[in-house]
Amino acid sequence: MNLVEKDKNYVWHPFTQALNAADPIPITSAKGAWLFDEDGKKYLDANSSWWTINHGHAHPYIAKAIHEQFLKMDHVIFAGATHPKAVETAERIVNSLPDGYQKVFFSDNGSTSVEVGIKMIYQYWHNKGIAKKRFLAIEGAYHGDTFGAMSVGQRGYFNKPFEHLFFDVDFIPFPTAENGAEVLSKMEELFATNDFAGFIFEPLVQGAAGMRIYDSSWLNSAVALAKKYNVLTIADEVMTGFYRTGTMFAINQISETADFVCMSKGVTGGVMPVGLTVTTQKVFDAFLSEDTSKALLHGHSFTGNPLSCAAICASLDLFEQEDTINSINRIANAHQDFLKKHGANPIFKKARALGTILSLEVEVGEESSYFSAIRLEAYNFFLENNLLMRPLGNVIFINPPYCTTNEELNHAYDKVMEFLTNMK
Ligand SMILES: Cc1ncc(COP(=O)(O)O)c(C=O)c1O
């Protein structure tokens, strides 16, 4: 049996209908911005492997840090023990955020980083003896696939079988230039009921909904409003963190501070599974009590894993290098140049960029949808042309590793335009 046959025998893939899915691509190595399959065919990883890889694959500096940590200490229980790389991670993450954050809770992935934030919020109010039951989220939101994260995500196709198990969440419309003020007054109406424990949002851009970009001043007002009504806020930076939006975090582009920041994906350079939930001393203090049940009784076997922490610290080192920031700015500029050249083309319903994310909503003559027929057609065309890109329905987007060269970017831009120009 070859790799793909064996895979089909034993593996259950995520987000995949196995009955009619195409064979998986047998990727056997990766370097920089490229993935290589077992026949040596190469693919530009233009979506950074689910938006994770930011310094490029197999980065020698991160590899060395993980290797050295492995030889020193591979893993240790994180309740009742600590280790240097976890402490270094927590201190550096806190210092990389705007003022006001103090405590870092470790978990394994983006969903758990959100799940922990939601649990912290509900328990915060519980510990204070204040009854607040509801959450607020934005239509189209995606915060992950665990139950809490699903509850605050867009309801529908992806989570229908579980819907009866979700807690109470109100969804406000996605904010646009036209409806922004109206959405804020709707929020205020809801918050005035005093029943809202928390408000969660993907800052500046909703990823899974189709890289939908929205205005920082709207977000600033929304967070200020939550503060006014004592609603705790979660900035889900799982996708946007680590310069995807041009700044270290998307929340660097607003002046209000959220009570929680969730991170994952790019936090290790995208190479190890980690979730971080960062919050304030005020939140932490609400869990201090002689009564042990007021502690956050939550954890995972791999909480604070030293290899993951070593990767985080190495990735943060790389972000301190001027070259990395120059590359981020170079990619952001290239996206802007693309927009200058093609942004007004009527094949696009909306063409936008934010930092290193280029988001191209293709005009398909009907409402945009994840299930748009062009998704698969585009995906296959890109594969044939050495590009691994998974469009979100009729939204084609490029968010490449920061080591991607202009020549590689141009290849991606050219192929996108070739596909769209020849599209029936
Ligand atoms: C904004 C956001 N939050 C949470 C998640 C869930 O992260 P994970 O897939 O690591 O569970 C994602 C994943 O795409 C995301 O984009």
| CATH topology label of the largest domain | Aspartate Aminotransferase, domain 2
Helical residues, percent: 25-40%
CATH class of the largest domain: Alpha Beta
For this entry, what is the oligomeric state of its chains? single chain
Question: How many strands, what sense, and barrel or not for the largest sheet?
Answer: 7 strands, mixed
Secondary-structure element pattern, one letter each: HEEEHHHEHEHEHEEEHEEEHHHEEHEH
Average the pLDDT over all residues and give the rounded result.
97
CA(first)-CA(last) distance: 39 Å
When the domains are counted, the total is: 2
Describe the structure.
The longest helix has 21 residues, at 322-342. The protein starts with a helix and ends with a helix. 37% of the residues lie in helices and 16% in strands. 43% of the residues are buried. Helix 3 (60-72) runs antiparallel to helix 10 (306-319), helix 4 runs parallel beside helix 10 and helix 7 (180-191) packs parallel to helix 8 (216-228). It folds into 2 domains: 3-58 and 322-422, Aspartate Aminotransferase, domain 1 (Alpha-Beta Complex); 62-319, 3-Layer(aba) Sandwich (Aspartate Aminotransferase, domain 2). The mean pLDDT is 97. Strands 4-12-11-10-7-5-6 form a 7-stranded mixed beta sheet, with helices on both faces. A hairpin with a 4-residue loop joins strand 2 (34-37) and strand 3. The radius of gyration is 22 Å and the shape is globular. It is of the alpha/beta class. It contains 13 helices and 15 strands. Residues 109-111, 114, 142-144, 202, 207-208, 236, 238-239, 264 line the site of pyridoxal-5'-phosphate (PLP).
